[in-house]
Amino acid sequence: MAQYYPKNAKSSTSNFKLNYTEAKPVSLNKFIETIELVIHQIAINPSLYSIINKSKKVRKCVLSKHNTLFYKVSNHSIYILRIYDTRQNPNNLKFS
User: Fold this and answer.
1) b/e for 14-23, b at 16 or more Cβ within 10 A?
2) Which element (helix H / strand E) includes 64?
3) Alpha-helical regions (H) of the chain
4) In DSSP terms, which residues pair with 68 in a beta bridge?
């Protein structure tokens, strides 16, 4: 199953890289392994995690107490929409 990242994800991932490059390499590696494991699980069973937005078919996977991965599945493809820091204002969480 193909995995796609949206064009606007670049700005979110640059913030992600900035925050996590300041962390210890061990914690960064563990977090990346968690993301890879979750994406592998989603590829095997795309409906594994619950839908949080029915109209846009967005699903939510909690990665850690401060990070949540949002994705959707369409035409046998997985679209990673965002890895969201849950310490942010939830009113700013929007999906286009």
Assistant:
1) eebeeeeeee
2) strand 58-64
3) 9-21, 25-44
4) 62, 84
Helix orientation angle between 9-21 and 25-44, rounded to the nearest 10 degrees: 140
List residues bridging with 61 in a β-sheet: 69
Q: At CA 2, angle to CA 68 and CA 9, rounded to 5?
A: 45
Could you read off the pLDDT of 39-94 as tens digits, one per residue?
999 999 999 999 999 999 999 999 999 999 999 999 889 999 999 999 998 888 88
Q: How far apart are CA 35 and CA 29, in angstroms?
A: 10
Q: How many residues does the chain have?
A: 96
